[in-house]
Structure formats: structure tokens, C-alpha cells
């Protein structure tokens, strides 16, 4: 048996699995997005119509798609930088030689990542409760009137962002911590000898050396945050006044609640295109930053 | 001389086929082989717990039939049933919410039951609440037997009403409005009524009291711009504008029972399951402080929405005869009464109401009265979705983003869009099954 054929044999199981469970569904979904597959078509295939790009056209003319996209972008634009800053801050603190009980803090800060969203969301819903919540209680102590965190359309998304950042920063923190520890210590030593302040060291050594890691973490977070679903699903059910309905939430509603697989698949592909463009832009910016 | 590369190809193809065969075999192993007389019965929500207690007697009476009950949570039931239909793995029988019945009938998933009812010694159509029975008739064919019924009406604090000078619950919208005004003190966080803005049942009940249907032309278009619906919507929105109800969703309302007990709300617009909730949460000596009353109408006693669950048999079931035997058992008045005792689910047949605690419990009487005056929601498969959109728009009107006229127009626009496929099918279809 030639080595090439042997290689194919080894690859075959993975290829079959990828083909059946990954490639095939994607192609099927693309096909579905060009039809109006729904309940009626499920009952009788003669009720299936080929609509070409009709679903996409329809979606682009619907307010609910644009507002869902707006909510998602709001979440990404506010949430991602906030999440990165918090994780970088936590990583820097954990990396500092002054901190004691590092293992404990590492575990504690990572804990939200491994707990299930639903379980912690229940706890956070209590924290956000208007009348009995801890947050309003704390604000009340400093004389601020209670805020209807999850019930007010203006506050619902910030509340979700706060929750999501708390839930997710630990993951990025661990990656950034690894990145920080990979920076050679003699660079700092040399900088100190040259009389650089802590801020200057951070600005001229830590940030540039951490660049590639930050870019990767940024891309991972952006693509993760674009897929916002579980948080509003558990906390607000997309409300109030649909102010927390994300694109993925819209897709879930169309597909699994109302059984409109044509529209749902179209939403999925639109989201894919948007995420692809954003990631490509980020990569290009990152590359330019590296060469500059 | 044979080409070695071609032989290679052939063997690769052969092995690929073998691999596929193995996969197919493995998948085939997943499907279970069932006992010939095992019935699968799906239940939704808490009914499952009660049914399990009712079944031993059934299995004693029919030792050759074994019933396997699967419980689905209410939030996942609709999805799971549709998935089962799409995946050709429906159970033998299930309970099905009244509003979902047209959808599954349109899917042609349900077995017509007319013939069996006609020859049945147990299921007597005359004994059922007339309007509830008629929901199960779609295009003249019977697809379900009502199991338990519910409707939403008013729970009210009798003591609070009395203190404000009202000796009886409201009978008309005008009376209701003046009571709400007298009992609302938004500055103290006290409101006349709780109407969660993410539940469509309340607005729908008010809309059903109008002469015009919410859909027109055989369910082809929305009819939310009709004078009747606008009147219902205006009444609903005014309740919030006058601050007689807080504009909050059920998520924020959290625990409405305790707050009702503390007098935060004088009225609560809800269903029969709350009788049990209130009894459990408010102490027994406060029993006389609260009561139930049928809905007030625009100018007299009002109708309510016909709700509840029916028992249906799936067309693909291999045990239709046994499934029907179980439906007959669950339809017996004494069994229905036991279900009520276990869970508080109200019987669908009148004779079951003539005995036990149902006859004597004053809190239940309002429901019996209301159940004689109910109207079903429009019988189209898209209704659940349209009602959701209706409520989303209504919530915008409550928030002051839309006027009543704008909201009604927007509801029509959304309903028309959702009904587009239905119009196309009604105009083109050769099969009458898809036109409930």
C-alpha cells in the first residue's frame, strides 16, 4: 500500500464525519434558504416554492431584521472592547509579581466560564430584579433610584452586556495570561535600566508583544458575540419590546418556533456573510498593524 | 495488463460502500423495537404527573395494553411535536392545546375521530361545552376529544373592592374602568390590575368579545383594523395609559400571587390553575378575601377565550384502537373528576362538574359560567404566530410608540405577511386538507 493511499485511509473517517455532519447540512441549508420551506411544505411537498433570493430580499426589507442586527452590533461594539479590557486587566493583575494566591484567583475568575449560562442567568435575574434585586439595593444605599434593569428597553441591553462580559472574560483572561507569560523578562529589565515607567513599559513592551494574542482573542470574541443568543433567551426572552432580540434569536424564532426554515436559513447565511466580512477586516487591520 | 490505479479506485469505492453499510447498520440499531401493545402517550406540563396516577386503573382494566407516558415541558412541547412529525416519530396519542389543533390538522397529522365517537358508549358530544367541542371540528371533521378546558377570567380582591364601595365584580367595561380607577394608586405602587405585556391572552379575550373576527375572508387577511378590535385595543392600552396596570412583562412580575395577596393588584386576569396557586400561597383564613368572576363585556356579560387541551390520535399510529380505548377511559366523568382533584384541570364535560368539589367550590363556579360563554380563536395554523405579533405591536402601543390606529394597521400588515402562504395555498391547492 502506497503511503498516499494509507494517508487517505487515515483521513477517511474524519472526512466522512465532516462531510455528513458539516458540509452536507451547510449545503442543505443554503438550498433551503432559496425556498419557502415551512409547515405547509412539511405536510405536503407540493406546497414548496422555489423563491430564489426572495427570502434574503424580504429580510433586507424587514424592520425586525435590521433592528435585530442593530441590537447584535450594539452588543458587539460595546461588549467586545469591554470584555477585552476586563480580561486584559485581570490577566495583568494575575501576572503581577505582587499578587498572592494566584491559583485561587485564577480559578475564581475562570469559574463563570465553566458554569452553565442558564444557571447563572437565574442568579443574575435576581440581582437585576427591580424591587428585590441586589443591584438596586446597592444603588439605593448611595441614593440612586431603582432602575428597571431588564424591563426597560434602554437598560436591558446594557444589563445583558454586563452579564455576558462577567460570564466570558475568564476565558480570554487565561489566553492573555499565557501570552503575558511568554514575554521575555529581560525586555522589561532592559527597559527598567533605561528608566522606563510602568506605563511606558506597558505601552512599548506589553502591548506590542501581546499584539498577535490580542488579535486572536479579539476575533474569537467578536465571532462569539455575534452569535448572541443564550443570554437574552434566558434573561429577557428577547424583550422588552424586542430590544434584546439578536440576529441568532431571530433565526431561532423563525426556524424552531415558527418552523419557517427558508427564512431561518437565509438569516443564518446573512449572519455568516456579516461575520466573514468583519473577521476579514479585522485580520487585514491586524496585518497592517504588524507591518507598520 | 490491468491499470493498477483503476483497480485502486475500485477497491476504494468498495471499501467506501462497506463503510457506509456499517454506518447504516449502526443507525438502524438505534431504532427501538416496541411491544405490539405498548402505547406511547405524550403529555405537556404537569398533566404528565397526574396521568401517571390515573393509569394503573386503566392497565388493570386492560391488562394487555401497556401505556408509556412521556412528559414534555410546555415551552418545548410545540417544537417537539413538530419535530416528531417531521422525523416521522410521532407517538400514538398526545394531548394538544386547542390553539395548536388547526396546525396539526393542516399538517394532516391527526386521525379523524368522528366514526369512533359515533359508536362510543362513553364520549357523548352533547355532554361537552358546546364551543369547546366545536374547536375540535375542522372543516366538519373531528380531530380531537376535549380533555380539560380553561379560559381566562378575573380573580379579584373582594375586600379591596368592598372598601372602595363596590359590592359586586364588574359586569361591563365601564364598571370595570371605574373600579380600576378607584383601586389604582400608582404613586404608592398599587395598581388595579396586572396585565403582563408579553401575554396575548388578555388582549385576545377582549378582542373575542367584539362582533368582528380578528381575521377576515376565511383567514386570508388580518382584520385588526375593524372597529371592534380597535375598541378592545383602546380599552387595553388605556388601562396602561391611565396607570391602572403597570407596563411590565411576566418576567418582571415575578411572583404575582404574593403581590395580589398584599394588595398590589386588585384584579388578576388569569386561568383556573391559579385557584390552586392562590390557595397554596395565601393562608386559609383569607379565603373569603378573594374570588373569581366572569369577564365583563363591552356592554354586558363578556365572552372569554376557549382554551384547554384535547386528546388526539396520530395518523401514523399503529395502535389507533388501543389509543381510542385510552381516550375513552380518560373521558369518563369520574376519571375527569379525579384529574381535577389531582391537578385542578377543569373537566371538558358537564356531567363531571355535577359531583365532588367541582359542584361545591364557589371559586370554580365563575369558570363554569364563563365556559358556557367562550369563543375560539381564529382557526388557522398561523394563529399562534399572529397572536404573538399582535401582542408585540400592542406592547409598542402600550409603551406609547404607536397610536391605536397605527398599531391596528401594523398588526394587519404583519398578519397579512404571515398569511401570504396560506392565501397562495387556498388559491392553488388541490387538496382540501390544507384549508382548515
Describe this protein's structure.
The complex is a heterodimer of chains A (292) and B (436). By secondary structure, chain A is mainly alpha-helical. Chain A is 76% helix and 0% strand. The longest helix of chain A is centred in the first third of the chain and has 33 residues. The relative contact order of chain A is 0.13. Chain B has 436 residues and is α/β, with parallel strands linked by helices. In chain B, the strands form 5 sheets. Chain B has a 6-stranded mixed beta sheet. In chain B, helix 9 packs across helix 10 and helix 18 runs antiparallel to helix 19. Chain B is globular and about 65 Å long. The chains are: A mainly alpha (292), B alpha/beta (436). Chains A and B meet through helix 1 and helix 2 of A and helix 1, helix 3, helix 18 and helix 20 of B.
Please describe the topology of this protein.
The complex is a heterodimer of chains A (292) and B (436).
Chain A lengths: L2 H30 L6 H5 L10 H7 L2 H33 L6 H13 L2 H12 L5 H8 L11 H29 L3 H9 L4 H29 L3 H6 L11 H11 L3 H31 L1
Helix pairs in contact in A: 4-8, 4-10, 5-8, 8-10, 10-13, 12-13
Chain B lengths: L3 H27 L7 E7 L2 H15 L4 E7 L1 H13 L6 E5 L3 H6 L7 H6 L10 H6 L1 E2 L2 E2 L2 E6 L2 E5 H6 L9 H11 L7 E4 L6 H8 L6 E2 L4 E2 L4 H15 L8 H4 L2 H6 L3 E6 L2 H9 L8 E4 L10 E2 L1 E7 L6 H12 L1 H11 L2 E2 L8 H5 L1 H10 L2 E2 L7 H16 L5 H15 L1 H9 L8
Parallel strand pairs in B: 1-2, 1-3, 8-11, 13-16
Antiparallel strand pairs in B: 3-14, 4-5, 6-14, 6-15, 7-11, 7-12, 9-10
Amino acid at each position: 500500500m502506497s503511503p498516499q493511499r494509507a494517508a487517505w485511509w487515515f483521513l477517511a473517517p474524519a472526512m466522512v464525519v465532516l462531510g455528513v455532519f458539516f458540509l452536507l447540512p451547510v449545503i442543505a441549508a443554503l438550498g433551503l434558504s432559496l425556498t419557502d420551506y415551512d409547515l405547509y411544505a412539511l405536510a405536503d411537498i407540493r406546497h414548496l416554492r422555489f423563491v430564489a433570493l426572495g427570502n434574503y430580499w424580504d429580510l433586507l426589507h424587514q424592520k425586525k431584521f435590521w433592528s435585530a442586527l442593530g441590537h447584535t452590533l450594539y452588543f458587539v461594539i460595546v461588549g467586545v472592547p469591554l470584555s477585552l479590557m476586563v480580561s486584559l486587566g485581570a490577566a495583568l493583575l494575575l501576572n503581577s509579581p505582587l499578587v498572592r494566591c494566584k491559583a485561587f484567583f485564577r480559578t475564581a475568575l475562570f469559574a463563570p466560564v465553566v458554569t452553565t449560562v442558564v444557571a447563572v442567568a437565574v442568579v443574575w435575574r435576581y440581582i437585576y430584579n427591580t424591587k428585590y434585586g441586589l443591584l438596586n439595593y446597592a444603588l439605593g444605599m448611595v441614593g440612586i433610584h431603582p432602575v428597571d434593569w431588564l424591563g426597560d428597553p434602554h437598560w436591558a441591553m446594557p444589563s445583558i452586556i454586563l452579564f455576558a462580559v462577567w460570564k466570558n472574560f475568564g476565558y480570554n483572561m487565561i489566553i492573555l495570561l499565557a501570552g503575558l507569560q511568554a514575554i521575555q523578562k529581560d525586555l522589561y529589565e532592559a527597559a527598567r535600566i533605561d528608566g522606563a515607567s510602568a506605563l511606558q513599559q506597558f505601552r512599548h513592551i506589553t502591548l506590542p508583544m501581546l499584539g498577535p494574542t490580542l488579535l486572536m482573542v479579539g476575533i474569537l470574541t467578536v465571532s462569539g458575540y455575534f452569535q448572541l443568543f443564550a443570554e437574552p433567551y434566558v434573561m429577557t426572552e428577547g424583550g422588552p419590546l424586542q430590544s434584546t432580540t439578536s440576529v441568532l434569536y431571530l433565526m431561532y424564532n423563525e426556524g424552531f418556533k415558527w418552523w419557517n426554515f427558508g427564512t431561518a436559513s437565509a438569516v443564518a447565511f446573512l449572519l455568516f456573510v456579516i461575520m466573514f466580512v468583519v473577521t476579514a477586516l479585522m485580520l487585514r487591520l491586524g496585518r497592517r498593524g504588524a507591518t507598520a | 495488463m490491468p491499470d493498477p490505479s483503476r483497480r485502486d479506485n475500485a477497491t476504494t469505492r468498495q471499501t467506501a460502500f462497506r463503510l457506509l453499510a456499517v454506518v447504516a447498520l449502526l443507525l438502524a440499531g438505534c431504532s427501538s423495537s416496541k411491544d405490539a401493545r405498548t402505547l406511547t402517550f405524550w403529555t405537556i406540563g404537569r398533566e404528565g404527573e397526574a396521568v401517571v396516577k390515573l393509569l394503573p386503573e386503566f392497565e388493570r382494566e386492560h391488562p394487555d395494553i401497556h401505556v408509556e407516558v412521556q412528559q414534555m415541558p410546555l415551552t418545548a412541547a410545540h417544537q417537539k411535536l413538530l419535530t416528531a412529525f417531521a422525523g416521522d416519530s410521532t407517538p400514538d396519542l398526545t394531548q394538544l392545546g386547542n390553539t395548536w389543533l388547526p396546525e396539526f390538522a393542516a399538517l394532516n397529522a391527526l386521525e379523524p375521530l368522528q366514526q369512533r365517537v359515533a359508536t362510543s358508549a362513553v364520549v357523548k358530544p352533547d355532554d361537552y361545552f358546546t364551543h369547546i367541542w366545536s374547536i375540535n371540528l375542522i372543516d366538519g371533521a373531528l380531530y380531537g376529544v376535549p380533555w380539560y378546558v380553561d379560559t381566562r377570567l378575573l380573580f379579584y380582591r373582594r375586600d379591596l373592592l368592598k372598601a372602595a364601595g363596590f359590592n359586586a365584580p364588574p359586569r361591563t367595561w365601564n364598571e370595570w374602568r371605574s373600579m380600576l380607577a378607584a383601586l389604582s394608586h400608582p404613586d404608592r405602587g398599587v395598581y388595579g390590575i396586572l396585565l403582563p405585556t408579553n401575554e396575548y391572552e388578555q388582549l385576545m379575550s377582549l378582542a373575542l368579545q367584539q362582533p368582528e373576527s380578528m381575521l377576515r375572508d376565511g383567514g386570508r387577511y388580518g382584520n385588526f383594523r375593524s372597529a371592534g378590535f380597535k375598541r378592545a385595543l383602546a380599552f387595553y392600552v388605556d388601562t396602561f395609559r391611565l396607570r391602572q396596570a403597570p407596563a411590565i412583562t411576566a418576567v418582571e412580575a415575578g411572583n404575582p400571587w404574593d403581590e395580589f395577596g398584599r394588595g398590589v393588584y386588585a384584579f388578576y386576569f388569569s386561568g383556573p390553575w391559579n385557584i390552586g396557586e392562590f390557595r397554596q400561597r395565601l393562608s386559609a383564613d383569607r379565603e373569603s378575601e378573594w374570588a373569581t368572576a366572569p369577564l365583563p363585556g363591552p356592554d354586558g356579560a363578556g365572552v372569554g377565550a376557549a382554551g384547554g387541551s384535547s386528546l388526539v390520535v396520530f395518523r401514523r399510529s399503529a395502535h389507533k384502537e388501543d389509543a381510542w380505548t385510552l381516550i375513552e377511559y380518560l373521558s369518563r366523568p369520574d376519571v375527569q373528576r379525579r384529574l381535577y382533584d389531582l391537578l385542578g384541570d377543569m373537566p371538558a364535560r358537564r356531567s363531571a362538574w355535577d359531583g365532588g368539589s367541582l359542584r361545591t367550590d364557589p371559586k370554580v363556579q365563575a369558570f363554569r359560567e364563563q365556559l358556557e360563554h367562550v369563543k375560539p380563536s381564529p382557526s388557522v395554523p398561523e394563529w399562534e404566530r399572529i397572536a404573538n405579533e399582535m401582542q408585540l405591536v400592542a406592547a409598542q402601543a402600550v409603551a406609547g410608540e404607536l397610536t391605536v390606529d397605527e398599531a391596528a394597521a401594523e398588526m394587519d400588515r404583519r398578519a397579512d405577511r404571515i398569511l401570504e402562504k396560506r392565501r397562495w395555498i387556498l388559491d392553488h391547492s388541490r387538496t382540501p386538507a390544507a384549508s382548515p
